[in-house]
Each structure stands twice: as structure tokens, then as C-alpha cells.
Specification:
3 domains; 282 residues; 37% strand; globular; Alpha-Beta Plaits; mainly beta; 13% helix; Immunoglobulin-like
């Protein structure tokens, strides 16, 4: 979950072997270092060391009463990345409970990776306020799905754009629209297959040419360090570069039926990629 975590492991006396280690979850583990687990002699208290509250990676000693392993607390790990004109950048980040308005944390996104990490509770909505140098404050909302136990990871991208960058991108999009209007189905060219969004099926000629409904989870001119590891439980992510200079991130599955692709898109949305969309490509 970030830094050191505490795990437990069970011994299967029938098979005579140890089972896989299991993360003990929140509130024992956090995005900071949590370690040096110790049980009191009478078993009434557990003690461990954690840097969760210092802000300077300094450790304090905490104690917690034993619970039941089968009733692990659930935790959502938000991994946010800040971009300015498609480049990872630093920003001041405030995370607030949308219902109460309470400020839960004030963080600084890393200036090199643009990343910040914070633990969220399931079944709640959070307000994320970001302030990047030279920009007005930006507010976005993250709605966290229900989760009964275990740990899941949500990756969210926060973008800032200058007017000059938007103008250049609009010019590029206009050019791309002209390219997309010309459907190229050549066997030698891995070109884009264009169909109307409303269509549920592909024609036989399009299928023969290799066109398929695909779920796209990202498209960037400057891809940088884009990470989609959190989607691997759903399927592999295919990275493809195209002649117009755009790098596209596509789920590996291919469909001839749009409804089947929509099922996969919804899974991506539930995993945290809210802006996943359906496209038609080879």
C-alpha cells in the first residue's frame, strides 16, 4: 500500500504448508511505513511502528486490539498524477470529504513523477483541489465504489493546460479529423478503422480487414510515464503508436459486437479508469 506493510500468513495443517501472505489492510497499514509488529504476552494488544502522522517519515508506536482476519477492513488507494501540458508536474493537492467539507490531507505531487498517493475509504465521494503554478485552482471529484474487504488501487489523472498548448492540440485534432475521414483498410497499413459510434456491428468487409471494437483507456501525444497496471486484473493493455504521433492505450480484447466491448468498458470504469471509451481499430 506504500512503503512497508504488515501481513499475516496461515498454516494449513492438513496440507502441511503455509498459505499465501495476506495484507492486513487499513487501519493497520497505510501509505506510509508500517512495521515491527509485536503481540503482547497476554495477546490483548498488538503493537507496531508507523510513520503515518509525522509527515517527516518519523515513527511512533501504535497499539491495536486483535480483530478477525476474515473481516479485514477495506481500503482504496488513490494514486493521482498531475500533468501540465502532458508533462508530469508538481502541484499542491488538498483532499476533502465531499459530504462534510473537511480537509483530510494536504499533499505535494512529486515534481518528477507528478504523483501523489492517499488512502480513501470505500463508498464515499472525495473532492480533490489542485493548485499548480500559473493556473487557477482546479477541482475534481473522485467517487469511491463500495468494497467490503481487501485493498484496491485507483489511478486518476489531473490535467492542466496552457492556452498555447490547447491551440496546438486543436490544430492537431483538426488535422486528425481530416485523416480519420479517409478510411484506409489496406492490409499493409495498420490504419485506423472509422465507424459511427451508434453502430453495434461491423460489416463483413470491415471484419475481414481486421477492424474490431476496442476499449481505449488513453491517448497521448507525449505519453511519458503512463501506468495502467491496475487494469491487469481485467486484461493486458496494448500500447500502439500511430503515424500522426499519438500513442494509444488499448485493452487487449477485440470484439465484433459493440455490446461486448461495452461490458469490458464498464469493468475498466469500475477499476478506476472513468474515461475509458469504445473505438474501432485493428
Amino acid at each position: 500500500m506504500g512503503g512497508y506493510d504488515i501481513f499475516y500468513i496461515k498454516y494449513d495443517s492438513v496440507k502441511g504448508q503455509w498459505q499465501d501472505p495476506v495484507n492486513m489492510g487499513y487501519p493497520i497499514n497505510t501509505t506510509d511505513d508500517d512495521r515491527y509488529y509485536y503481540i503482547s504476552k497476554d495477546g490483548d494488544w498488538w503493537y507496531f511502528s508507523s510513520a503515518r502522522a509525522s509527515g517527516e517519515n518519523l515513527h511512533d508506536i501504535y497499539r491495536i486490539q486483535p480483530g478477525t482476519f476474515e473481516r479485514l477492513n477495506a481500503m482504496i488507494l488513490l494514486v493521482g498524477t498531475v500533468y501540465v501540458d502532458e508533462v508530469e508536474s508538481s502541484a499542491l493537492v488538498k483532499i476533502m470529504d465531499d459530504k462534510t467539507g473537511d480537509v483530510l490531507a494536504t499533499l505535494i505531487a512529486d515534481s518528477t513523477s507528478g504523483e501523489f498517493v492517499y488512502s480513501l475509504l470505500p463508498g464515499r465521494q472525495y473532492k480533490i483541489s489542485l493548485l499548480a503554478d500559473g493556473f487557477s485552482p482546479k477541482v475534481e471529484y473522485v467517487e469511491v465504489p463500495e468494497l467490503t474487504e481487501g485493498v484496491t488501487r485507483i489511478e486518476h489523472r489531473f490535467d492542466f493546460y496552457t492556452m498555447g498548448f490547447l491551440k496546438r492540440r486543436q490544430d492537431s485534432m483538426n488535422l486528425q479529423a481530416e485523416i480519420d475521414a479517409k478510411v484506409r483498410l489496406s492490409e499493409e497499413d495498420d490504419a485506423i478503422c472509422i465507424v459511427e459510434k451508434e453502430r453495434d456491428q461491423l460489416s463483413e468487409s470491415e471484419i475481414e480487414a481486421g477492424c474490431r471494437f476496442r476499449v481505449q483507456v488513453g491517448a497521448y501525444r507525449n505519453a511519458g510515464k503512463i501506468k495502467y497496471e491496475f487494469l491487469r486484473s481485467i486484461g493486458d493493455v496494448e500500447i500502439k503508436g500511430y503515424s500522426e504521433g499519438i500513442t494509444r492505450y488499448l485493452m487487449g480484447q477485440k470484439f465484433t459486437n459493440r455490446q461486448e466491448a461495452e461490458v469490458l468498458r464498464q469493468k475498466c470504469v469500475m477499476a478506476g479508469q472513468w474515461d475509458a471509451w469504445i473505438t474501432v481499430r485493428r
